[in-house]
Design goal:
CATH superfamily: YjbQ-like
Distance between the termini: 17 Å
Order of helices and strands: EEHEEHHEEEE
Radius of gyration: 17 Å
Shape: elongated
Mean pLDDT: 93
Largest sheet: 5 strands, antiparallel
CATH architecture: Sandwich
Structural class: alpha+beta
Length: about 140
Amino acid sequence: MKGPADSVRIISMQAINVRSSKREEMIDITREVERLLPDGDGIRVLFVQHTTCGLTVNENADPDVQSDMLGFLERLIPQYDKHFKHGEQNSDAHIKSSLVGSSVTVPFDNEKLALGRWQGIYLCEFDGPRERKLMMRTIGV
């Protein structure tokens, strides 16, 4: 007798590179992630292989949302703090990336991400400009 696990297929790992242009910015990567979806339905798991940036799902209709998020994080965790001991002057970026997180999971249906009307997937850069590598794994049915 076949169970649900018998119909699950795992698609090989894919990678995308994202280049940031500022020390702190949110880069909408939704279209690139969707472009690389396989046929069918499933979930897409994204993971960023760096400790000074993160991934999040948030509003992509009004750029003020990204500006507000970055501004709030900058006020909450300034780059320079007399208590930071890490010599590279990017302790703030490490803290921000831990708060935001290093992965997101998004379902997809019919080769389209199942995001809400105003949602997008963002790479949150906190220590740029740099090139960042994201790993993507798809679990499909």
